[in-house]
């Protein structure tokens, strides 16, 4: 497997703001790669530089062995770009939109129509884009980015503002696109999305990559307690604390009695011996825990 994307020491400033600060990483052929971070972390700027939409102040980028900047006419047919905000031609139907995009690459109308079927939009082919739901508009946007069969697909916050059902539906589509052999690079701040879809993720903040690796490996590297929850009132807090031992913590919030422990097996055994496993919930660390440990918990607009 070769390297599809190579980024070395990327830098980009806007006045006093260091939007991208020494970013380096590579993406393998056929990989689903995620760039995660809170608002203002530098995700979109990094992606736009890689796509050739924005010039870096310094550093190098190679996509399929070519530099994307200045705008590279040899590279453009090989990449597909779905921007953070979908933008379509006014008053055109979904079929007319994708045929227009296809014509830019010399793709026949029949092939463009087939792409609507690939993304599950054939029943909306005659619907004007402004009448599509958020999930349908995102699917059409991805279809337009895929119509010329690019080798690499870039997606910037593709599930932003979608309801849970539309998000899950979109995930199935993105998995199928990646399974077909395409390299996919995704930016998102939805941690469950990255954990479900990505082979590797880079967690960014303040223009820097803080951690990079497979989601499961990043989670395993986090020294986080396992949380075991029972219905409130199942045990008193003192009895629960005695059962869990001095190294665990116990909290009863009136809804759940929750243990936080680094040794869950003995505690689960003790609960089983007392027939207290009914309705139990066990939660280990997630990518969200890694993300919050690295980037903090303060709200960012």
UniProtKB/TrEMBL annotation:
Q: Which UniProt keywords apply?
A: Antibiotic resistance, ATP-binding, Cell membrane, Membrane, Nucleotide-binding, Translocase, Transport
**Protein name according to UniProt:** ABC transporter ATP-binding protein
Gene Ontology cellular-component annotations? plasma membrane
Q: Which family does it belong to?
A: Belongs to the ABC transporter superfamily.
- Residues forming the ABC transporter domain are 5-231
Please report the organism this UniProt entry assigns to the protein: Acrocarpospora corrugata
The record's listing under Pfam families reads: ABC_tran (PF00005)
- MF (Gene Ontology): ATP binding; ATP hydrolysis activity
Q: Which SUPFAM superfamilies match?
A: P-loop containing nucleoside triphosphate hydrolases
Provide a GO biological process annotation.
Answer: response to antibiotic
Gene3D superfamilies documented for this protein: P-loop containing nucleotide triphosphate hydrolases (3.40.50.300)
| Primary subcellular site in the record, as a coarse category | membrane
């Amino acid at each position: 497997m070769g390297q599809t994307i190579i980024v070395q020491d990327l830098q980009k400033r806007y006045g006093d703001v260091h939007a991208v600060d020494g970013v380096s990483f590579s993406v393998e052929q056929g990989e689903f790669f995620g760039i995660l971070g809170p608002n203002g972390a530098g995700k979109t700027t990094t992606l736009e530089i890689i796509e050739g939409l924005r010039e870096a102040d310094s550093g190098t980028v190679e996509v399929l062995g070519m530099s994307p900047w200045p705008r590279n006419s040899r590279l453009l047919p090989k990449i597909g770009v779905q921007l953070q905000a979908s933008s379509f031609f006014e008053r055109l139907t979904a079929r007319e939109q994708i045929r227009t995009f296809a014509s830019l690459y010399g793709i026949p109308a029949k092939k463009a129509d087939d792409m609507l079927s690939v993304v599950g939009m054939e029943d909306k082919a005659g619907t004007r884009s402004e009448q599509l739901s958020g999930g349908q508009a995102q699917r059409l946007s991805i279809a337009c980015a895929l119509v010329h069969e690019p080798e690499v697909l870039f997606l910037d916050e593709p599930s932003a503002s979608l309801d849970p059902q539309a998000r899950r539906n979109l995930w199935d589509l993105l998995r199928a696109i990646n399974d077909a052999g395409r390299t996919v690079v995704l930016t998102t701040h939805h941690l469950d999305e990255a954990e479900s879809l990505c082979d590797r993720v880079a967690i960014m903040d303040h223009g820097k990559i803080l951690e990079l690796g497979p989601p499961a490996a990043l989670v395993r590297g986090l020294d986080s307690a396992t949380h075991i929850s029972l219905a409130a009132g199942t045990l008193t807090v003192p009895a629960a604390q005695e059962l869990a031992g001095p190294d665990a913590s116990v909290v009863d919030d009136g809804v759940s009695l929750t243990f936080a422990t680094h040794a869950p097996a003995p505690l689960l055994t003790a609960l089983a011996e007392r027939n207290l496993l009914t309705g139990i919930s066990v939660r280990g660390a997630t990518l969200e825990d890694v993300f919050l440990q690295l980037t903090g918990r303060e709200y960012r607009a």
